[in-house]
């Protein structure tokens, strides 16, 4: 039952210029984003991170670089399946301009029916991301044990779609989820169901460090009486 820490990349030049970056090359962290990335090692200092996985896009790789520098033994794995949604013809365009496109209302209100011209559909995006997360979860647990913690740096829509899956939410509800740049979202997958441990956390997450079994409570997906104070 490994714990996944989803990191949204730090603030990028596209975020501040109001552009839908998508997979456009050369989109990097801005000054604030670089500062957010520099703070990441301290925020994760209390966690024994077993693996780091990243989207191939530069802004995600940049976000994890300070963490990798602080932990020389931590290797970086790149997985195309957690890359940004392929927005196709929308990539690189101003969001203000895209708001006038009728498809934007579908994206916001009925994303399970949204497919980007020249790109992919939102259900396809979610399917590949969830597949990647679950495969990495199984791999990390097999290699490092049930208390392992691993980090995955990706993008807003990817993280929101993974959270929706973990909560059993329909994709049409995923726009209700917000994750800020360089925020941390934690999910622990168990034999029976996932637990959302943190959502869009912008501070320290040291309390997610593995605890002795006698302190951790029920962690096999069974209901916990009294509001779940001892849940994993």
UniProtKB/TrEMBL annotation:
It comes from the Bacteria. Coiled coil: none annotated. CDD domains: HP_PGM_like. Residues 212-222 have a biased composition (Basic and acidic residues). Residues 206-232 are annotated as: Disordered. SMART domains: PGAM. NCBIfam families: MSMEG_4193. PANTHER family: BROAD-SPECIFICITY PHOSPHATASE YOR283W-RELATED (PTHR48100), CONSERVED PROTEIN (PTHR48100:SF2). This is MSMEG_4193 family putative phosphomutase. The lineage of its organism: Bacteria, Bacillati, Actinomycetota, Actinomycetes, Kitasatosporales.
């Amino acid at each position: 039952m490994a714990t996944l820490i989803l990191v949204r990349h730090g603030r990028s030049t596209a975020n501040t210029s109001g552009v839908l970056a998508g997979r456009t090359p050369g989109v990097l962290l801005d000054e604030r984003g670089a500062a957010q990335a520099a703070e990441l090692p301290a925020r994760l200092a209390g966690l024994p991170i077993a693996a780091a996985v990243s989207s191939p896009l530069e802004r995600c790789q940049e976000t994890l670089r300070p963490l990798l520098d602080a932990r020389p033994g931590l290797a970086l794995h790149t997985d195309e399946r957690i890359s940004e949604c392929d927005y196709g013809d929308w990539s690189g365009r101003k969001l203000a301009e895209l708001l006038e496109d009728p498809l934007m209302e579908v994206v916001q209100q009925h994303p399970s029916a949204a497919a980007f011209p020249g790109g992919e559909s939102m259900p396809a995006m979610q399917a590949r991301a969830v597949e990647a997360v679950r495969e990495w979860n199984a791999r990390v647990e097999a290699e490092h044990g049930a208390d392992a913690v691993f980090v995955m740096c990706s993008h807003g829509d990817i993280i929101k779609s993974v959270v929706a899956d973990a909560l059993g939410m329909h994709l049409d509800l995923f726009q209700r989820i917000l994750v800020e740049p360089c925020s941390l979202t934690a999910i622990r997958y168990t034999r029976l169901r996932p637990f959302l441990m943190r959502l869009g956390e912008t501070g320290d997450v040291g309390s997610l460090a593995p605890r002795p079994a006698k302190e951790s409570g029920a962690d096999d997906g069974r209901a916990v009486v009294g509001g779940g104070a001892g849940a994993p």
